[in-house]
Amino acid sequence: MSHHPTAEARDMTARTSLRLLAVLDVLSSTPARAKRLAPRPDSPLTHFTSPRGETCRLMNWLLLCVLAFLSAVAQAQNLPLSERHEKGMAHLKQAAVHSQAQRDHEALVELEKAYELLPPSYGLSKLLGEAYLKTNNARAVEVLSQAVELNPIPEAWENLAKALAANRRFDKAIEMFSEKANTEPKNTLFRLLLGEAYWNRSRFQDALQQFRLAVELSSDSARAHFRTGYAQQLLGDSDAAKQSLERALKLDPDHA
């Protein structure tokens, strides 16, 4: 009886372990707060990201955890990865090295190679998509769309919204989040993302309507109150804007 692992067994081991990237993403997700500023009508409304150093640290932590985990799985089950997977892991390791040295372009190149070689995973799609976002690469939309398909968690939708805004695909964002809001009318996140897409398209009245719906759904959401206040202020309703912004500050003083 042969004890050599089959190709199917190797692929199953690699695929299963890589899918734990999503778990590692959650464990390593400790975004730093950034000071909020009122959005300008002439610039895309997106969310605030962690400082560069924090982002690099988390990215390296994640990549190295993945490498260590895959190695442990292969050793425990005596299942060597296929040549394709070995090459993919080598590129992932190099991406971590370049990221540690803040060589963003080189890290991106290595992530692209790993992405082509390794089985689909939310974590890898997220990493590559965020790397594209840093360089304003149009492929961010494609890769982060795949991340949503693999794991449609709020973080994935937020990242996709950022990519659409960064590439000024405002109509696509409106179409996408209108559909999601209609499918899940009580989902606060989709109301906010739709409102932000309207804002980016300079449809401020439509944006305000969605932000108000978000407030109705989640009265304790500082983000919903802030967005509502910004829109009210822009549309000339200063008294209502003051109330909305004061409410937001009570919920989250760090927005000040």
What form results from the Cα inertia axes? elongated
Summing up helix and strand content along with how strands pair, one would put the structural category as mainly alpha
CATH class of the largest domain: Mainly Alpha
- From the structure provided, what is the oligomeric state, counting identical versus distinct chains? single chain
Radius of gyration: 21 Å
Average pLDDT, rounded to a whole number, is 78
Residues in helices, as a percent range: over 70%
Distance N terminus to C terminus? 69 Å
- Fraction in beta strands: under 5%
Please name the CATH topology of the largest domain. Serine Threonine Protein Phosphatase 5, Tetratricopeptide repeat
Series of secondary-structure elements, N-terminal to C-terminal: HHHHHHHHHHHHH
How many strands? 0
| CATH hierarchy: architecture of the largest domain | Alpha Horseshoe
Any idea how many domains?
Answer: 2
Low-confidence stretches: 1-38, 47-55
Tell me the major beta sheet.
Answer: none
- How many helices does DSSP assign? 13
